[in-house]
Design brief:
Layout: H1 2-5, E1 10-16, E2 47-52, H2 55-69, E3 79-82, E4 85-88
Antiparallel strand pairs: 1-2, 1-3, 3-4
């Protein structure tokens, strides 16, 4: 799904138990809300990261998720912004 949404103007955010994972530390990532990509959790706040979702970055993001994280255990609320429009999966 990420590869279908990837453009030079797309970003993806993940929220969950991410601290210490490759995904949380990826180059180009930010831990601040940005544009349409906002935190879904309030109490307790979960780890939050926004990453550029380009064609090149999507493979790197998938690798980081597949290697150690996995959606069911660590990622609770993924969301994406493509050309200014928000897409929320959770």
């Amino acid at each position: 799904m990420m590869r279908l949404l990837a453009t030079d103007h797309s970003r993806i955010a993940f929220e969950g138990s991410l601290r210490g994972t490759e995904l949380f530390e990826m180059d180009g990532g930010s831990h601040e809300e940005s544009g349409q990509l906002k935190r879904a959790s309030t109490a307790p706040p979960l780890d939050f990261v926004v990453l550029p979702l380009t064609n090149a970055a999507s493979a790197e993001i998938e690798k980081a998720i597949d290697s150690k994280i996995g959606f069911t255990r660590y990622i609770e609320v993924p969301s994406c912004q493509r050309h200014g429009a928000a897409i929320r999966a959770g």
